[in-house]
Design a protein that fits this description.
Layout (H helix, E strand, L loop, with lengths): L6 H5 L7 H15 L9 H15 L2 H13 L6 H6 L2 H8 L16 E7 L1 H6 L1 E12 L14 E3 L8 E8 L2 E8 L8 E3 L11 E12 L8 E4 L15 E7 L5 E4 L2 E8 L1 H6 L1 E6 L4 E6 L8 E4 L16 E7 L7 H14 L12 H6 L5
This protein binds zinc ion (2 copies).
The site of one zinc ion has 8 residues, from loops.
Length: 370
């Protein structure tokens, strides 16, 4: 977790400072700490901090948000997100001050993809072909950017330095910034003839079919990582990874609880009272269940090993839990009605359980008033 930063302290203003005071304090500090004027160790860091503080306190919405967080003492959960949202402002502000591209190999960016699979596919595993668009090293120049046979020569714009100086007017004065050379992108050298296929970028976009193997037992929201199937790296750096997030469709009969499969078994009064042998669907065909006589709604039968395989241990499987629901018939034909009436006479009326104090019905009689 990021340590809590006190933006008021950074700008040296009180908590009830006016917008104008905050702006004044920021200008003064930014002028003092700008890395092009201040060569102290850590000046750039301090300058960035000052900016960060001003991006928040100088904006009424963000300031209100910040004050709320501080007030709630929530230890700045989500502070990272709060700050990362400021990235664009910093980047614009810092454009060219010290960001010079270097030839350090860097890994490519990650790619994300989402696929929807059926309940059974999650249970048994499956393979899916997906098509993605990604950056790869140019096949013609093999990522070098030059037409085969061309040569690397010193960049004429920056004389090989990779950066040029530029005067900039800003909110708090005039600065000379070093900016990345636009001709050689900071590399100091250019090719005599750019690659015709990638226009010298060394990269090209490609559509690729990727086969994704989904292991048995995955759950909704699971993420599969395919190493090196993301965007190409730079300067020989490895490609990024591809992450495939799975959405598992609901099943018309089954629900899932971890590795167990849940199933509701509807039976009628007679089956519940007399007992029966019934067939229930499972992920792999059907299974028979002996419903003993006198079974009540809510009774759960375990079908061992009829659930989903465990991702960690493919040999272990969950169970299918079959929950009995005794269904009351909502339509009776004449014969059924006669039989139920006969049964009703035999069974008699169910008795109200004894209750202490005033009963529900008594209260009803009094019109709900006690
Ligand atoms: Zn090329
Ligand atoms: Zn250059």
């Amino acid at each position: 977790m990021v340590a809590k930063k006190d933006y008021y302290r950074i700008l040296g203003v009180s908590r009830d400072a006016s917008n104008e005071d905050i702006k004044k304090a920021f200008r003064k500090l930014a002028f003092e700490w700008h890395p092009d004027r201040n060569y102290e160790d850590g000046a750039a860091e301090r300058f960035k901090e000052i900016n960060e503080a001003y991006q928040v306190l100088g904006d009424s919405d963000k300031k209100a948000q910040y004050d709320r967080w501080e007030h709630n003492g929530r230890g700045f959960v989500g502070f990272d997100d709060f700050v990362s949202g400021l990235g664009d402002v910093f980047d614009a502000f810092f454009a060219g001050t010290s960001r010079v591209r270097s030839r350090v190999p860097q890994q490519g960016a990650a790619l994300h993809y989402k696929i929807t699979i059926a309940f059974e596919e999650a249970a048994f595993g499956c393979e899916k072909d997906i098509e993605i668009s990604r950056t790869e090293y140019c096949s013609h120049c093999r990522g070098q950017g030059g037409e085969p046979g061309s040569q690397l020569v010193r960049c004429p714009d920056c004389n090989g330095a990779g950066e040029v100086r530029r005067v900039q007017q800003s909110l708090f004065g005039r600065f000379v910034n070093r900016v990345v050379c636009e001709r050689c992108y900071g590399e100091g050298s250019v090719v005599t003839e750019s690659c015709h296929q990638c226009k010298g970028t060394g990269r090209e976009r490609k559509r690729r079919k990727i086969n994704v193997k989904v292991p048995a037992g995955v759950d909704n929201g699971a993420r599969i990582r395919l190493r090196g199937e993301g965007e190409a790296g730079t300067w020989g750096g490895p490609a990024g990874d591809l992450y495939v997030t799975l959405a598992v469709e609901e099943h018309s009969l089954f629900k899932r609880d971890g590795n167990d499969v849940l199933y509701d078994l509807p039976i009628n009064f007679a089956q519940a009272a007399l007992g029966d042998e019934v067939e229930v669907p499972t992920l792999e065909g059907t299974a028979k269940i002996k419903v003993p006589s006198g079974t009540q709604t809510g009774k759960v039968f375990h079908l061992k090993g009829k659930g989903l395989p465990s991702l960690q241990q493919s040999s272990s499987k969950g169970d299918q839990l079959v929950t009995v629901r005794v269904v009351t018939p909502d339509k009776l034909d004449e014969e059924q009605r006669r039989l139920f009436q006969e049964l009703s006479r035999k069974l008699g009326k169910t008795k109200m359980p004894e209750q202490g104090g005033k009963g529900f019905f008594e209260r009803m009689r009094r019109g709900g008033k006690d």
